[in-house]
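User: For my dataset I need records formatted as: sequence, then structure tokens, nothing else. Please produce one.
Assistant:
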Amino acid sequence: MSKIIYFIGTAGSGKSIAVHAFQVWMNTQGYDAITVNLDPGAENLVYNPNVDIQDWITLKEAMKDTDLGPNAAQIYCADMLALNATEVSETIKGFDTNYILVDTPGQMELFTFRESSRVIVEEFGRDDAMIVFLVDPILAGTPSGYVSSIMLSATTQFRFSIPLATILSKADLLSEEKLERILEWSKSPDALNTSLEEETGSPAILASSEFFKALESVGAFRPLLPISSLNLQGFEDLYNEIQTAFEAGEDLATD
């Protein structure tokens, strides 16, 4: 049975290039994976998706047919995904592969917070699915921004209730000092709380032990996995995380 991996993150977090880079890494390791683009408005993708939602619906066509502006048309397209979910799923199932890497819409709210996305997850297969949530290093560069990122990750997991791995994308853009600081925040609530107090000049309202324990209980507060889509660093760690989520570490490629 193919395993489905949804790449979700804020706009600019590097979802598309991460999907492409992870497929490249898998191919170099002898693993088979296909890519699926679910963004009706995607232009100039860095990869050629094996399955593309734009074969069914595009943002430009939606704007032309409905006379909607770009923002309203994006919402319209997001809801139209559900109407095409069965046909897209059947197309995907025509591929004999171990992994299906799904590139979700650039604006994460168009996927995470629309009911159509639940239809897609159910249609594609919930039992064989997980999420890779991309934390943007720019947003996570401040303590408050980091907390916002892990809260978005937690919200995403609440919405879908499937396994989730959290990665720090575009780690190659960070200096060693900034990278270590963000990784330390992901490992130590105390370190993050201290940095929050330094940033705000007063005790952070949300940065209580109970708050972090709640995030830990749903798996949202966890050490980040830094990756670089440019040099393929960190993808072995991501692959191992996926194996742990699906098969408690058993290599799916041996099935």
